[in-house]
Amino acid sequence: MFNDIGPLELVTIIVLAVLVFGPDKLPKVIQDVMRTIRKIREFSESAKADIREELGPEFKDFDFEDLNPKTFLRKQLDNDELGLKEIRNGFDLKKEMAEVTEAVQSADTPSSSSPSASSSSGRLDMTKKPEEPEKDERPPFDADAT
Protein backbone atom coordinates (compact mmCIF):
# COMPACT_ATOMS: atom_id res chain seq x y z
CA MET A 1 0.00 0.00 0.00
CA PHE A 2 2.80 2.41 0.91
CA ASN A 3 5.42 1.23 -1.55
CA ASP A 4 6.49 4.72 -2.58
CA ILE A 5 7.04 6.12 0.94
CA GLY A 6 10.68 6.19 1.97
CA PRO A 7 12.08 5.93 5.50
CA LEU A 8 12.54 9.70 5.85
CA GLU A 9 8.90 10.36 4.91
CA LEU A 10 7.73 7.68 7.35
CA VAL A 11 9.73 9.21 10.20
CA THR A 12 8.34 12.66 9.32
CA ILE A 13 4.75 11.35 9.41
CA ILE A 14 5.33 9.69 12.79
CA VAL A 15 6.85 12.85 14.28
CA LEU A 16 3.99 14.97 12.96
CA ALA A 17 1.41 12.50 14.32
CA VAL A 18 3.02 12.61 17.77
CA LEU A 19 3.11 16.42 17.69
CA VAL A 20 -0.50 16.81 16.48
CA PHE A 21 -2.24 14.13 18.54
CA GLY A 22 0.17 13.73 21.44
CA PRO A 23 1.61 10.51 22.82
CA ASP A 24 -1.52 9.83 24.92
CA LYS A 25 -4.11 9.97 22.12
CA LEU A 26 -1.93 8.51 19.32
CA PRO A 27 -2.73 4.78 19.99
CA LYS A 28 -6.48 5.53 19.94
CA VAL A 29 -6.17 7.49 16.67
CA ILE A 30 -4.18 4.65 15.07
CA GLN A 31 -6.87 2.14 16.11
CA ASP A 32 -9.61 4.35 14.66
CA VAL A 33 -7.76 4.78 11.37
CA MET A 34 -7.10 1.04 11.09
CA ARG A 35 -10.76 0.26 11.84
CA THR A 36 -11.87 2.72 9.13
CA ILE A 37 -9.48 1.26 6.57
CA ARG A 38 -10.71 -2.25 7.41
CA LYS A 39 -14.37 -1.17 6.94
CA ILE A 40 -13.57 0.46 3.58
CA ARG A 41 -11.84 -2.72 2.39
CA GLU A 42 -14.79 -4.88 3.50
CA PHE A 43 -17.21 -2.53 1.72
CA SER A 44 -15.21 -2.60 -1.52
CA GLU A 45 -14.90 -6.39 -1.46
CA SER A 46 -18.65 -6.81 -0.88
CA ALA A 47 -19.36 -4.36 -3.72
CA LYS A 48 -17.08 -6.34 -6.05
CA ALA A 49 -18.79 -9.59 -5.04
CA ASP A 50 -22.23 -8.06 -5.67
CA ILE A 51 -21.18 -6.83 -9.12
CA ARG A 52 -19.76 -10.25 -10.05
CA GLU A 53 -22.98 -11.90 -8.83
CA GLU A 54 -25.17 -9.51 -10.84
CA LEU A 55 -23.12 -9.94 -14.03
CA GLY A 56 -23.83 -13.66 -14.09
CA PRO A 57 -21.80 -16.78 -14.87
CA GLU A 58 -20.53 -15.55 -18.26
CA PHE A 59 -18.39 -12.97 -16.43
CA LYS A 60 -16.96 -15.32 -13.81
CA ASP A 61 -13.38 -14.57 -14.92
CA PHE A 62 -13.99 -10.80 -14.89
CA ASP A 63 -11.22 -8.92 -13.13
CA PHE A 64 -11.64 -5.31 -12.05
CA GLU A 65 -8.02 -4.61 -12.98
CA ASP A 66 -9.09 -5.12 -16.62
CA LEU A 67 -10.91 -1.79 -16.42
CA ASN A 68 -7.53 -0.06 -16.35
CA PRO A 69 -6.80 0.84 -20.00
CA LYS A 70 -3.12 -0.17 -19.80
CA THR A 71 -3.98 -3.57 -18.35
CA PHE A 72 -6.75 -4.07 -20.89
CA LEU A 73 -4.46 -3.31 -23.86
CA ARG A 74 -1.65 -5.48 -22.51
CA LYS A 75 -4.05 -8.38 -22.06
CA GLN A 76 -5.51 -7.95 -25.57
CA LEU A 77 -2.06 -7.70 -27.19
CA ASP A 78 -0.90 -10.84 -25.36
CA ASN A 79 -4.06 -12.66 -26.50
CA ASP A 80 -3.22 -11.90 -30.17
CA GLU A 81 -6.49 -13.16 -31.67
CA LEU A 82 -6.30 -10.44 -34.31
CA GLY A 83 -2.80 -11.31 -35.50
CA LEU A 84 -1.34 -8.01 -34.32
CA LYS A 85 2.09 -9.51 -33.74
CA GLU A 86 2.34 -10.53 -37.39
CA ILE A 87 1.37 -7.03 -38.49
CA ARG A 88 3.79 -5.43 -36.06
CA ASN A 89 6.62 -7.74 -37.13
CA GLY A 90 5.75 -7.26 -40.81
CA PHE A 91 6.96 -3.68 -40.76
CA ASP A 92 10.65 -3.27 -41.39
CA LEU A 93 11.25 0.30 -40.29
CA LYS A 94 14.89 0.38 -41.42
CA LYS A 95 13.95 -0.79 -44.90
CA GLU A 96 11.15 1.77 -45.22
CA MET A 97 13.38 4.57 -43.93
CA ALA A 98 16.05 3.59 -46.48
CA GLU A 99 13.46 3.73 -49.28
CA VAL A 100 12.29 7.17 -48.18
CA THR A 101 15.89 8.39 -47.94
CA GLU A 102 16.62 7.13 -51.44
CA ALA A 103 13.50 8.81 -52.81
CA VAL A 104 14.42 12.14 -51.17
CA GLN A 105 18.00 11.94 -52.36
CA SER A 106 16.92 11.10 -55.91
CA ALA A 107 14.61 14.13 -55.86
CA ASP A 108 17.51 16.29 -54.63
CA THR A 109 19.86 15.35 -57.49
CA PRO A 110 20.28 18.20 -59.99
CA SER A 111 18.80 17.79 -63.43
CA SER A 112 19.20 20.01 -66.45
CA SER A 113 15.45 20.58 -66.79
CA SER A 114 14.84 21.70 -63.19
CA PRO A 115 15.40 25.43 -62.78
CA SER A 116 14.98 25.33 -58.98
CA ALA A 117 17.83 22.86 -58.41
CA SER A 118 21.19 24.31 -57.55
CA SER A 119 23.87 22.95 -59.84
CA SER A 120 26.74 23.23 -57.39
CA SER A 121 25.44 21.52 -54.23
CA GLY A 122 22.78 19.14 -55.55
CA ARG A 123 20.13 20.62 -53.24
CA LEU A 124 16.92 22.49 -53.85
CA ASP A 125 17.07 26.26 -53.80
CA MET A 126 14.58 27.26 -51.10
CA THR A 127 14.87 30.97 -51.90
CA LYS A 128 13.02 30.65 -55.20
CA LYS A 129 9.24 30.39 -55.31
CA PRO A 130 7.85 27.18 -56.78
CA GLU A 131 6.32 27.36 -60.20
CA GLU A 132 2.59 27.96 -60.04
CA PRO A 133 0.28 25.85 -62.20
CA GLU A 134 -1.57 27.47 -65.03
CA LYS A 135 -4.81 29.24 -64.12
CA ASP A 136 -7.02 26.81 -66.08
CA GLU A 137 -5.35 23.69 -64.68
CA ARG A 138 -7.09 22.30 -61.59
CA PRO A 139 -5.42 20.08 -59.02
CA PRO A 140 -6.32 16.37 -59.24
CA PHE A 141 -9.60 15.41 -57.57
CA ASP A 142 -9.68 12.48 -55.20
CA ALA A 143 -13.26 11.20 -54.69
CA ASP A 144 -12.19 9.00 -51.77
CA ALA A 145 -10.76 11.94 -49.84
CA THR A 146 -14.09 13.79 -49.67
TrEMBL record:
InterPro entries: TatA/B/E, TatB
Membrane topology per record: Single-pass membrane protein
Keyword NADP: no
Region (Disordered) residue spans: 101-146
Keywords, comma-separated and alphabetical: Cell membrane, Membrane, Protein transport, Translocation, Transmembrane, Transmembrane helix, Transport
Primary localisation category: membrane
Pfam families recorded: TatA_B_E
UniProt feature, compositional bias: Low complexity: 106-121
Compartment list: Cell membrane; Membrane
Transmembrane helix listed as a keyword: yes
Subunit structure: The Tat system comprises two distinct complexes: a TatABC complex, containing multiple copies of TatA, TatB and TatC subunits, and a separate TatA complex, containing only TatA subunits. Substrates initially bind to the TatABC complex, which probably triggers association of the separate TatA complex to form the active translocon.
Annotated function: Part of the twin-arginine translocation (Tat) system that transports large folded proteins containing a characteristic twin-arginine motif in their signal peptide across membranes. Together with TatC, TatB is part of a receptor directly interacting with Tat signal peptides. TatB may form an oligomeric binding site that transiently accommodates folded Tat precursor proteins before their translocation.
UniProt family annotation: Belongs to the TatB family.
Protein name: Sec-independent protein translocase protein TatB
Organism: Streptomyces prunicolor
